[in-house]
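Design job #97: recover the sequence.
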């Protein structure tokens, strides 16, 4: 297990390296940010990390809840803790850019639910993020009002999501469209807050193609 310092806290990172292609060329890398369930669904996040890594990307799965000492999000402190987590993501980008074999000019974030909101908030003020994959995440409250320029974004959402309504996906799309930012959106009509079966496979393929388009 690797780690980096954020404030006075060590943040653990699980590293999933891209396959060695035999070339001494630095490659693209992404942060993987889990949702509010934290590490209670860790095997699913590790599977996602391995899938992305197999596509040729270094993946850093960041345990950002280490900063607040939680295993899953404490909703009573969500607003209070959100800025702390954004700071961790920025520190994680700095750490990722310095890792051997990583091209600091080709960094992205794959965020799931709350992790996607953190990705959007971070990218709004950090130009190092060159691409975002948003798995059923909400648009941070004041982001639409601030109208920041975001990087190319892939939006993946379930039409029946009862936790983060699909209207959030369309709000993100509207913001990107107003900016003229490249984006793709896929709404899965029969899925809620999470994908299974064919939708899960399709989302993984779209993620790979999108990252290839903007980080290769």
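Job complete. Output follows.
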């Amino acid at each position: 297990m690797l780690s980096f310092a954020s404030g006075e806290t060590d943040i653990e990172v699980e590293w999933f390296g891209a396959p060695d292609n035999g070339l001494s060329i630095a490659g693209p890398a992404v942060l993987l940010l889990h949702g509010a369930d934290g590490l209670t669904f860790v095997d699913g996040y590790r599977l996602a990390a391995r899938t992305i890594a197999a596509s040729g990307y270094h993946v850093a799965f960041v345990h950002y809840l280490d900063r607040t000492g939680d295993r899953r999000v404490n909703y009573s402190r969500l607003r209070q803790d959100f800025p702390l987590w954004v700071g961790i993501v920025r520190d994680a980008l700095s750490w990722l850019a310095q890792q051997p074999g990583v091209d600091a000019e080709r960094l992205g974030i794959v965020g799931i639910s709350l992790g996607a909101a953190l990705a959007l908030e971070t990218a709004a003020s950090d130009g190092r993020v060159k691409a975002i994959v948003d798995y059923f995440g909400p648009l941070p409250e004041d982001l639409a009002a601030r109208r920041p320029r975001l990087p190319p974004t892939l939006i993946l959402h379930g039409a029946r999501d009862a936790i983060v309504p699909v209207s959030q996906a369309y709000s993100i799309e509207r913001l990107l469209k107003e900016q003229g930012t490249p984006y793709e959106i896929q709404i899965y009509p029969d899925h809620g807050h999470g994908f299974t079966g064919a939708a899960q496979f399709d989302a993984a393929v779209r993620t790979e193609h999108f990252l290839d388009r903007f980080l290769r």
